[in-house]
Amino acid sequence: MSTEDYQDIQNADAKADTEANEAPEVSIEGLQAQLATLAAAYESAKEQSLRSQAEAQNARRRAEQDIEKAHKFGQDKIVNDLLPVVDNLERALSTIDASNEAFTAIAEGIQLTHKSFIDALARHQVIVVNPHGEPFDPNLHQAVSAVPNPDVEPNTVINVFQKGYTLHGRLLRPAMVVVSKAP
Length: 183
Known about the structure:
It is built from four helices and six strands. The protein is α+β, with helices and mostly antiparallel strands. It has a three-stranded antiparallel beta sheet with strand order 1-4-5. The protein has a three-stranded mixed beta sheet with strand order 2-6-3, with no helix packed on it. α3 runs antiparallel to α4 (104-123). The radius of gyration is 42 Å and the shape is rod-shaped.
């Protein structure tokens, strides 16, 4: 190794020592401020992450509820189309002369058809609302008229023109009723 090389190494070492001594002084306050800024950024990112997760979970839950409602109440239209058939079977039963022997078999057949129809609807959570003699409930009944009747309490259903129906507890069709009122 020549003297020049030796001197170059010494000069480099001296230069490195000088640069190390001239390095900017890092203050504790500066580091604490930087730490506080990073901690705030971390907390903000953490909060945003939690909000995003909660929002995704809420969206998933809403979608599941919508699917459940679609399964439950997707039958609304077809059930509403079938209810007049039940009404017609009931009208047919009410018009048949039960005392005439010729109509006994027909009445029995219509009764069995009506019963099987009602049972099939009940299996799909379609429940009949027949409020005869019950207090009037505007959530389930539609009052066609009010008639003075001293024999029963006011707001009592005294006649049912058309039965109502619910599907999974939600009203499909209100019962059309006559309500008593005070004389």
